[in-house]
């Protein structure tokens, strides 16, 4: 059973998302919150598999709440899925820097939201390929925090891992990466498991952020 916490300051959105997830087999909402501080308290008390977190909330916002739950230095992180109404928004990247495992727009189809919850709960994170390159490319381009050098990747990763990282930054799933590189899905998963500790990241989405920050992946149409 996947357990979830829903954090949103709009009662209608909070109730709707809670009802939608509770109707899904194998998913149970174990808590709700109307602001970031409450989200942190509820998540720490219930230890859910995933927190569905709004960004803009009164008091403690979703970014800081995310940082407290799964940011750098958190010994026992709780995975966070960001749900936002903004597809180009500095708040989105702030949440990614804070440690979020994925993000979706609130107008995503219900089945997409459910799939994202399952993916984040499984430790795979989620990347919306329709907006990932645009959001990360534009925002990371404005707010680089790492040296822009392709050598940084080649120093850390094998050529095959670089190939996988580039596809990951485009928002491709494991299955799509496997088809693109003529690999088995299990091989892709093995490469990802070895790659992420090298980069010091905890999720696929954080790996994609790393790729853009270091100039490995560039804005533009998917290859």
Give a short synopsis of this structure.
This is DNA-binding response regulator. With 223 residues, the chain is α/β, with parallel strands linked by helices.
Average pLDDT rating: 83
Q: How many strand units?
A: 5
User: Could you give the order of strands across the largest sheet?
Assistant: 2-1-3-4-5
CATH H-tier superfamily of the largest domain: Response regulator
Please give the share of residues in helix: 40-55%
CATH topology of the largest domain: Rossmann fold
Task: List the uncertain runs.
Answer: none
- Radius of gyration of CA atoms, rounded to a whole number: 17 Å
Q: What is the tally of helical segments?
A: 11
CATH class value of the largest domain: Alpha Beta
CATH architecture level-2 label of the largest domain: 3-Layer(aba) Sandwich
| Largest sheet geometry | 5 strands, parallel
Number of domains as seen in the coordinates? 2
Shape: globular
* Structural class by SSE content: alpha/beta
Helix-strand string: EHEHEHEHEHHHHHHH
Q: Name the beta content range.
A: 5-15%
* First and last CA, distance: 37 Å
């Amino acid at each position: 059973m996947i357990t979830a916490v829903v954090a949103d300051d709009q009662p209608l959105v909070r109730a709707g998302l809670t009802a939608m997830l509770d109707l899904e087999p194998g998913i149970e909402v174990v808590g709700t919150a109307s602001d970031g501080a409450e989200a942190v308290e509820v998540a720490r008390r219930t230890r859910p598999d995933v927190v569905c977190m709004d960004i803009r909330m009164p008091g403690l916002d979703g970014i800081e709440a995310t940082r407290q739950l799964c940011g750098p230095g958190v010994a026992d992180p709780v995975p966070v899925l960001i749900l936002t109404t903004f597809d180009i928004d500095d708040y989105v990247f702030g949440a990614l820097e804070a440690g979020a495992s994925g993000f979706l727009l609130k107008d995503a189809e219900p089945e997409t939201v459910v799939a994202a919850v399952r993916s984040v709960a499984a430790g795979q994170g989620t990347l919306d390929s329709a907006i990932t390159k645009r959001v990360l490319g534009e925002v990371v381009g404005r707010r680089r925090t790492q040296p822009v050098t392709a050598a940084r990747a080649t120093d850390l990763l094998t050529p095959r891992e670089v190939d996988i990282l580039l596809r990951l930054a485009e928002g491709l799933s494991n299955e799509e990466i496997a088809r693109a590189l003529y690999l088995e899905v299990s091989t892709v998963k093995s490469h990802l498991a070895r790659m992420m500790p090298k980069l010091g990241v905890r999720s696929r989405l954080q790996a994609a952020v790393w790729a853009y920050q270091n100039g490995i992946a560039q804005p533009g149409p998917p290859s």
